[in-house]
Amino acid sequence: MNLLFQEIETFLCRTERRIALIDRCRPKNFASEVRAVAQAWARGEPKNPSFVYRAAPDLSEHREKLEIIVRALETGDLLAKLYAERAQELCLEAELAEAVGSARLRELADQRYGSILPQTECYGRARVWAGLEPTIAGFERVRSDDAGQPTSLVSLMQRGVRELELPFGVVVKENLPSAAAIGEGVILIQASLYLAEHEARRIVVHELYGHALPRVRARREPLGLFRIGAARGADDEEGRALLLERRHGLFGIERQVELGRRHIASWAASEGADWVETVRVLLDLGADTEAAMSVASRAQRGGGLGRERVYLPALLSVEQALKDDPELEAWLERGRLSIAAARVLKSAGRALSERRRALVQGSAFEAYE
Fold first, then answer.
1. Pairing relation of β-strands 2-4 and 358-361?
2. CB-based contacts of 348-356 (< 8 A; 24+ apart in sequence)
3. For residue 57, what is the DSSP state?
4. What is the pLDDT of residues 269-288, one digit of tens each?
């Protein structure tokens, strides 16, 4: 029996949902534990939070099957290699999901989220941004989950979903470390977060135009790679989402400060700093205690995932790539591609992106069906 692209695509999509790395890195007790450590800090008793995570999954069979796909495809043509690279990335993310809450997570996270640009270049930019003076005075802030306020995040997000006719629900969630996050058919909103209108609009642009629209468009593509994502596609997607914020005039000083702090905090986490040490790094950069705790909690989720270290490098690399070749953006708009994958598909043309042919022979893969 021949193994078709479609079989691989179905398995990779199913495996990504099973891994659910970012969701597994969200502490079950995030809000209550952050409140507890904030109270302890106010008493002059800094302590690390005791975050609780979902039980670690056993993904060994998924990893074995992913490794079979990698071996079968890594010596194939350009399209086969794109699938092999994504399978390899998912194999690493499966290991990360199994390691959430353990000491091993940081080592694996370094392999997955190590900087795509020289660290010195991005770290220097991050320190400059983190040192800027935010202009936060004079902005009215409303609760993110106040559906009665037309300028709240939940109201603006719901309006954007309706206007773009997106098949996504908008759900308020208590234990969410980020202001918003996108999942399978759902956009999550952090409860009880006070935001100015321009901040809420920036988040809407980021989530809907940067993440939701490419996912919806990917469903219409003949090639499943747009749906399952290319290796590093999630990173470049974040870079483009930041670029869209800038194009909409929403990439202000406050956002630059936030991204600078996140980058530095994530690298501190990757180098072994615990939560308290990360908070102190941010305080030294000029963050107030509340902001420092928020950023540190995000960098330390899962036990030190530090995923935010990819945001700034991805912004710089995507921005440069689109300056060099503006046509690449049309490919990024169509699904979850990386810049590298977009270049391959663009150069190969329509015939490659729509092809459906057998890739490997034999029953090694079938044994896991």
1. antiparallel
2. 348/78, 348/79, 352/78, 352/79, 353/221, 353/222, 353/223, 354/222, 354/223, 355/5, 355/79, 355/223, 356/4, 356/5, 356/6, 356/222
3. P
4. 999 999 999 999 999 999 99
Tokens found for residue 42: 């106010």
Using DSSP's 3-state secondary structure scheme, residue 360 falls into strand
pTM: 0.91
Segment holding 155, helix H or strand E? helix 153-164
Q: Could you read off the pLDDT of 39-60 as tens digits, one per residue?
A: 999 999 999 999 999 999 999 9
Structural contact between residues 57 and 97, judged by C-beta atoms closer than 8 angstroms: yes
> Residue 238 has which token pair?
């974040």
Any idea of the CA torsion for 119, 121, 126, 131, to the nearest 10 degrees? 130
CA distance 10 to 316: 33
As a whole number of angstroms, the distance between CA 107 and CA 167 comes to 37
pLDDT at 357 over 50: no
